Amino acid sequence: MGQINLNQVTKSFGDVQVIPPLDLQINEGEFVVFVGPSGCGKSTLLRLIAGLEDTTSGHINIDGKDATTLPPSKRGLAMVFQSYALYPHMSVRKNIAFPMRMAGLDEATQKAKIEAAAKALNLTDYLDRKPGQLSGGQRQRVAIGRAIVREPAAFLFDEPLSNLDAALRVGMRLEIMELHKKLETTMIYVTHDQVEAMTMADKIVVLQAGVIEQVGSPLELYHAPRNKFVAGFIGSPR
Ligand code: ADP
Ligand code: MG
């Protein structure tokens, strides 16, 4: 589960091609980080995988199935939005339950899954609070909880920590990495922050203007950057 292949995928907005033909393989259970400067196409690529944007050409395969034209709800993936996407008038419990209510799961199953997610995210004591009564980090955990209960084949994060202050960001990074260890589910994480990429990733995908400059582990990119852009961006001494 959570194996994603992009085959000659392109994306244009009007006449402007923001993603030239791109191939990428994401393996089961990997923590993959898309990194690159603002406007390089990270969000677009993630949204193509999620199905929130249609590909202009090419194919997206998820777990052996052609998912190119499937709507987001049929792809088995969960996009984690920034915490401000929570419903302010609903309790944490109801926020986490929301996707399960939409899917029509029975109450007992919902309750069990909410409790398991809350435990994994240290939110057990906060289930009856409203988002406004939580810290930024706790709110972000609720947003992740809402994704967990769907038991997705992969989690897709788009700069989930960019609203948090620096200290909190470091803590949340560790929490997301711990969660990845616990769940062993594929995670794709978009950031423009090199430190985040280098500390979190199994595999880093470096993008520039919609083109993959290099794919590799943090050590590979550091010790053997393919070009000056990668070296400069990653902060490699070469
Ligand atoms: P990143 O997430 O790396 O900052 P984006 O994927 O948001 O970059 O954007 C990549 C490029 O595509 C940018 O030039 C951006 O202006 C353009 N773009 C993104 N979404 C749209 C859209 N809906 N319509 C037109 N252009 C878009
Ligand atoms: Mg973006």
Automatic annotation (TrEMBL):
This protein's GO CC annotations: ATP-binding cassette (ABC) transporter complex, substrate-binding subunit-containing; maltose transport complex
The UniProt record lists the keyword Membrane: no
Top-rank taxon, per record: Bacteria
Record's keyword terms, sorted: ATP-binding, Nucleotide-binding, Transport
GO molecular function list: ABC-type maltose transporter activity; ATP binding; ATP hydrolysis activity
Residue span(s) of domain ABC transporter: 4-234
Family, as annotated: Belongs to the ABC transporter superfamily.
This protein's name: Sorbitol ABC transporter ATP-binding protein /mannitol ABC transporter ATP-binding protein
Parent-protein start and end of this portion: 1 to 238 of 334
